[in-house]
Amino acid sequence: MTAPKKNTKKRSTAVRNQSAEEVKRNLRGEAKRMHTAAVRETVVRKSRKTPGDSYAPPENIITSTLGELIQGVRTIPEDQQERMGFTQDGGFGAKLWMAGDVSLVKQPCVAIVGARDVSSGGAARSRRLARELARAGVVVVSGLAKGVDTAALTAAMEAKGRTIAVIGTPITRAYPAENKRLQEKIYREHLLVSQFAPDKRVYPSNFPERNKLMAAITDATVIIEASDESGSLHQAAECTRLGRWLFIAKSLAENPTLRWPQNFLLYPTTRVLHQTSDILDVLRVN
What we know:
This protein is α/β, with parallel strands linked by helices and 286 residues long. It folds into two domains: 8-53; 62-283, Rossmann fold, CATH 3.40.50. It is built from eleven helices and nine strands. The chain has helices spanning 8-16, 20-48, 66-70, 120-135, 148-158, 180-189, 206-217, 232-242, 250-253, 260-264, 276-283, and strands spanning 62-65, 95-100, 109-113, 139-142, 163-167, 191-194, 220-223, 245-249, 270-273. Strands 1-2-6-5-4-3-7-8-9 form a nine-stranded mixed beta sheet, with helices on both faces. The longest helix is centred in the N-terminal third of the chain and has 29 residues, at 20-48. The radius of gyration is 24 Å and the shape is globular.
């Protein structure tokens, strides 16, 4: 298929109709804009090279496996064990690299996940839920992405609660870069978990794998905001496979433009979230 020809004649006529002074003025304006853009780009490049601004990876890294981490607290259904790396020859699930307080996994844990490009209303719901769970003594778990993840983790910490970040990159890297300080705070004061070896290359497939791990180490997942194509649905599917509770925000369940909530509400472990006590009741947290 041939690209359409540009109407160069019309454009050149428009230029000829401009006065010489107008042409000069336009050129000066364009040159100024290009110079400003170049200066901004230089500033960004310089800021990225500032040593004090780079991510400081954890010095003390704990290695374990999924099976060891959740032993005595959560189980993997028998029909899912092989898929999760539990084998008769001694496989005990994915190998994990962690930094921080591993004992947090032994407490009631609820994941809050959703859109990276979250709406203001969705961000507010994420923060409110995280604060209320934290005050009830529940560990708030999320993935450290932009949007819902960041809102939930930050709000839980502001409420003096405990958090776990499960990431799709090695713990020696911070992604997104804008969350590097948050990631450092989490591994120093809470818990950072990855199933990817230090300095290992990152692939898009890492993130669904991250969702699978997050579902496995938590008691429940809450989806705050997600489209029919959202990556959060990987975690919803893992909840149904692993027998974990799945809560769908009321605003999503009542959205007539979305198909996925009604599909998941067919499962007995899926609920519409009306209030935080809905979660506390099924987890038997007073």
